[in-house]
């Protein structure tokens, strides 16, 4: 599969503390932070456990342990300061991580970010058991074609039952609700073909409710879009000759 995740700089957006970029980049950086923190916490816990096991091992004769009485703090606890320090440090780390993650997800879920950057807007309609993509010129297709490195804003709805539209490789996922619409966005930073799926159990053929998402070179996409019209027939992606009723590129 081409075009999975590419780690890039933060594109100069934000302060550098909150990740910025495509959805795939942002989620990759969140994963990296949690992985690093998990490794550090694991190393500290395992290291201290090994140290304590060695220090208080049985039969070395170097340390005698006198168990405290009921309600009494251990003599080596320094009046509970170690417990207070460890609890305070843990609370600071956890709260900071929650706030950082929340701020990052606010950016990811803000579809106005894509709109401000001249996004391609496509309507997505889910129905048992297929996806239909409607372009600005009215062209309908069962394949979503988008240009590389351009934000794509999706307006998602359903014509029958609840569905959930998602493209795992692009980190896109949102509900398709009858009579309502939800908005999401993504950027395909490399050309290639991805699979869109339904993530809401919607009937007997739920597992077959898939569609292709094709990320194309901008020039190739413009050539394809010029051949489309308001029909439901997908244009030829390799065609470079505009049709008689050629459409302006959105």
Quick description:
The protein is of the alpha+beta class.
Features:
single chain; 250 residues; Immunoglobulin-like; five-stranded mixed sheet
Write up what this structure looks like.
The protein has 250 residues and is an alpha+beta fold. The protein folds into two domains: 23-109; 118-226, Cupredoxins -  blue copper proteins (Immunoglobulin-like, Sandwich). The chain has helices at residues 23-55, 81-109, 112-116, 218-226, and strands spanning 120-127, 130-134, 140-141, 143-147, 151-158, 163-167, 172-176, 182-187, 192-198, 210-216. The strands form two sheets. A five-stranded mixed beta sheet has the order 3-2-1-5-8, with no helix packed on it. It has a five-stranded mixed beta sheet with strand order 4-10-9-6-7, covered by helices on one side. Strand 6 and strand 7 (172-176) form a beta hairpin. The chain starts with 22 loop residues before the first helix and ends in a 24-residue tail after the last helix. The model is unreliable at 1-15 and 235-246 (pLDDT under 50).
Identify the strand order in the major beta sheet. Answer: 3-2-1-5-8
What is the total tally of β strands? 10
Q: Let me know the CATH homologous superfamily of the largest domain.
A: Cupredoxins -  blue copper proteins
The coarse overall form would be elongated
How large, in whole angstroms, is the Cα Rg?
27 Å
Query: What's the CATH topology label of the largest domain?
Result: Immunoglobulin-like
Task: Write down the secondary-structure element order.
Answer: HHHEEEEEEEEEEH
In helices, the fraction of residues equals 25-40%
Query: Helix count, per DSSP?
Result: 4
Instruction: Please report the distance between the alpha carbons of the first and last residues.
Output: 28 Å
Structural class: alpha+beta
Low-confidence stretches: 1-15, 235-246
């Amino acid at each position: 599969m081409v075009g999975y995740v590419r780690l890039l700089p933060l594109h100069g957006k934000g302060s550098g503390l909150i990740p910025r970029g495509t959805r795939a980049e942002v989620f990759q950086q969140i994963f990296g932070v949690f992985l690093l923190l998990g490794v550090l916490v694991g190393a500290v816990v395992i290291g201290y456990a090994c140290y304590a096991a060695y220090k208080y091992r049985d039969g070395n004769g170097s340390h005698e342990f006198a168990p405290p009485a009921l309600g009494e703090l251990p003599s080596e606890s320094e009046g509970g300061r170690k417990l207070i320090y460890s609890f305070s440090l843990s609370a600071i780390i956890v709260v900071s991580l929650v706030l950082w993650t929340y701020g990052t997800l606010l950016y990811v879920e803000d579809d106005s970010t894509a709109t401000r950057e001249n996004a391609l807007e496509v309507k997505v309609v889910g129905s048992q058991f297929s996806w239909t993509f409607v372009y600005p010129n009215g062209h309908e297709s069962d394949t979503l074609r988008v240009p590389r490195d351009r934000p794509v804003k999706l307006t998602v709805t359903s014509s029958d039952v609840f569905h959930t539209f998602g493209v795992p490789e692009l980190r896109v996922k949102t509900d398709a609700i009858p009579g309502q619409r939800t908005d999401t966005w993504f950027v395909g930073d490399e050309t290639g073909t991805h699979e869109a799926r339904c993530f809401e159990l919607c009937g007997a053929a739920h597992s077959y409710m898939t569609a292709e998402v094709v990320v194309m070179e901008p020039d190739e996409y413009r050539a394809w879009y010029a051949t489309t019209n308001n029909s439901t027939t997908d244009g030829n992606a390799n065609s470079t000759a505009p049709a008689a009723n050629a459409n302006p590129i959105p």
